[in-house]
Amino acid sequence: MGLTFADIKLTNSEDLALLHKGYIQEQEVRSIWVNALVDTGASMLTIPKSIQDQLNLPKVDEQRVELGNGSVITVDVVGPVEIRFENRMAIVTAVFIPEEIEVLLGAIPLQSMDVLVDPRQERLIVNPQSTDKARIFFEGIEKMLSLGKLQELKKNDEENS
Question: Cys staple from 61: which of 9, 77, 122, 128, with CB 3.0 to 4.6 Å?
């Protein structure tokens, strides 16, 4: 299996919130289209300094990350950042690497957007079982909901489909 890349749009989520509240105009929202390496072995979105600078994403945390060679480093976590791929969207934090690396799209945003890697065509695709909207899995939540509430949610979903 070769490398898989995908065109994704990254947007500063704080800018989107300011836009929705009427504090800034649409042209002031910081966004960038990138060709990201899809890395199912990575957990998070990973971005280089140039993209962190362009989107002006603030530091929200520090994280220890284990690299593929087994070494562990401490990196900044920045965000929130909105990721868009086709008809999918996720809001995540990103690991910031202060060097010019490729953008890596890891497993957490992939799962949040309900997208899959097509290994034969080496491309990212929308889950064919849920093409209109992302489907997120919540194992065990049905045990917390009352039977009546669960049936109500299913009925609402059927009516909206």
Answer: 77
pLDDT by residue for the chain (161 residues), tens digit each? 578 999 999 999 999 999 999 999 999 999 999 999 999 989 999 999 999 999 999 999 999 988 888 899 899 999 999 999 999 999 999 998 888 889 999 999 999 999 999 988 999 999 999 888 887 766 666 565 666 666 676 677 677 76
DSSP type of residue 160: H
Q: With beta carbons less than 8 A apart as the criterion, state whether 61 and 128 touch.
A: no
What is the rounded CA–CA span in Å between residue 82 and residue 102?
18
Distance CA 15, CA 63 (A): 24
| Cβ proximity of 5 and 37 under 8 Å | yes
**DSSP E strand boundaries for the chain:** 5-12, 31-38, 45-48, 59-66, 72-85, 88-97, 104-105, 115-118, 123-126
How far apart (Å, rounded) are the C-alpha atoms in residues 99 and 73?
Answer: 14
> What residue ranges define each of the domains in the chain, with the CATH number in brackets?
5-131 (2.40.70.10)
